[in-house]
Amino acid sequence: QVxxxxxxxxxxxxxxxxxxxxxxSGLPPSTYxxxxxxxxxxxxxxxxxxxxxxxxxxxxxxxxxxxFTISRDNAWSAVYLQMNSLKxxxxxxYYCALVGRGGSTSSYYTSRRADEYDYWGQGTQVTVSx
Length: 130
Hints:
By secondary structure, the protein is mainly beta.
């Protein structure tokens, strides 16, 4: 059974930093394209960042570019999201996602589309106060 478990969320003040982590288990040994999405209160889920199998490609949403950094540790099937200079508009539930069955086999493949991700974590709340 595939599981993604996020951690690291919390309540912080504007300008602070947080580091989210996501650990994947239950998958065959390999590396998988992964990503972070978020759902602000009362809004649709939106793309935040993604990372390719070889970590060479890391697209970001314009709203987080320059402040957030995605990285991965393939040895531990983990992906991280370092969030700096947090703003109140970053308040959301953050979800980790993984492309398991679909998508390209290219080491450089990533996706901004939620429907291309096969597995999702339960989410972790990030609240940024002004």
